[in-house]
Amino acid sequence: MIVKEVIVKNKAGLHTRPAASVVKLASRFKSDFYIEMEGVEINAKSIIGVMSLAAPKGTRLTLKLDGEDAVEAARQLVEFFDQGFGEQ
How far apart are CA 15 and CA 23, in angstroms? Predict the structure, then answer.
């Protein structure tokens, strides 16, 4: 299992558009993917799960990936979070 910490960097936080983009990116991989926030863990391949986090800017999230392509999935997902979901 790969565990990575990320911080939500975009101004609007993890709202609908970036949540959908996270799910879309995660769904490209076979690995299981979960996001933990304040002790709550959700399936990150579920749009409802990701949106339920409602993580504002500055929130620390723990990404947990497990599976055959977890290394590449983690790399791409951490990069996506680090880039602020491509938003300003």
Answer: 12
Q: Report the b/e string of 45-73 with b at 16+ CB within 10 A.
A: bbeebbbebebeeebebebbbeeeebeeb
Give the tens place of pLDDT for each residue, 50-80: 999 999 999 999 999 999 999 999 999 999 9
User: Is position 37 annotated as part of the catalytic site?
Assistant: no
- Both tokens of residue 38? 């304040």
- Does the domain made of 2-83 have the CATH classification 3.40.50.1970? no
Q: Which member of 9, 15, 76, 84 is catalytic?
A: 15
